[in-house]
């Protein structure tokens, strides 16, 4: 290419490090959408608005409605409970008629342990977990209710999977 050739111009967009650099890629499918961003709660609402619109445009309402609950809650949890040392990554991968959501972030061992215990409790009985967390709103007990994971399992009816490698944690769900 000659200097000045439009093909030699750079957009300035850097290629993000793939999540597989930290965790093995789930089921080997390439991401349909992958976003990495600093762990800043200020990014929750604008990023969610984009992801929600994307889900409705690409996957249709029956999948998008359930997927949007998971996108919001898992992304919010990653932003709020991660250490903030590394980017938070959100990926969507298509599998036949389903879509896998993966949210990856950096977390402390204590945060990872609490997450794994909470997911296990919720997976055993989403309905019981929902009632338990809702009852915590009526009392002044600590810690505060943890409804995000519960909403994904109970309201959206999605199973959650947690994978950990060192201080990286990936929470995923498959929606179809």
Explained architecture:
The chain is an alpha+beta fold and 176 residues long. The protein has one domain: Histidine kinase-like ATPase, C-terminal domain (Heat Shock Protein 90, 2-Layer Sandwich). It is 43% helix and 20% strand. The protein has 5 helices and 5 strands. The chain has helices at 44-59, 61-81, 109-124, 126-138, 147-155; strands at residues 33-37, 88-95, 98-106, 161-165, 168-175. It has a 5-stranded antiparallel β-sheet, with helices on one face. Strand 2 (88-95) and strand 3 form a beta hairpin. The longest helix is centred in the middle third of the chain and has 21 residues, at 61-81. The radius of gyration is 18 Å and the shape is globular. The termini are far apart. The relative contact order is 0.17. The model is unreliable at 1-27 (pLDDT under 50).
Features:
alpha+beta, 176 residues, 43% helix, 5 strands, Heat Shock Protein 90, globular, single chain
The number of helical segments is 5
Number of domains: 1
Provide the succession of SSEs. Answer: EHHEEHHHEE
Question: What portion of residues is helical?
Answer: 40-55%
Global morphology: globular
Largest sheet at a glance? Answer: 5 strands, antiparallel
Residue ranges: pLDDT <50 for 5 or more in a row? 1-27
How much strand content do the residues show?
15-25%
Q: Class in CATH?
A: Alpha Beta
Average pLDDT works out at 82
As a whole number of angstroms, the C-alpha radius of gyration is 18 Å
Can you say what the CATH homologous superfamily is?
Answer: Histidine kinase-like ATPase, C-terminal domain
């Amino acid at each position: 290419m000659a200097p000045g050739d439009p093909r030699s111009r750079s957009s300035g967009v850097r290629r993000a490090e793939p999540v597989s650099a930290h965790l093995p890629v789930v089921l080997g499918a390439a991401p349909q959408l992958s976003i990495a961003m600093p762990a800043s709660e200020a990014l929750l609402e604008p990023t969610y608005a984009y992801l929600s619109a994307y889900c409705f445009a690409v996957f249709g309402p029956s999948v998008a409605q359930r997927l949007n609950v998971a996108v919001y809650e898992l992304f919010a949890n990653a932003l709020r409970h991660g250490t903030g040392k590394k980017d938070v990554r959100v990926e969507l991968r298509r599998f036949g008629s389903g879509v896998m959501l993966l949210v990856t972030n950096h977390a402390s061992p204590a945060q990872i342990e609490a997450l794994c215990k909470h997911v296990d409790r919720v997976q055993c009985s989403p309905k019981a977990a929902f009632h338990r967390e809702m009852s915590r709103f009526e009392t002044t007990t600590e810690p505060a209710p943890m409804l995000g994971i519960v909403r994904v399992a109970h309201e959206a009816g999605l199973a959650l999977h947690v994978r950990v490698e060192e201080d990286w944690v990936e929470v995923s769900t498959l929606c179809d």
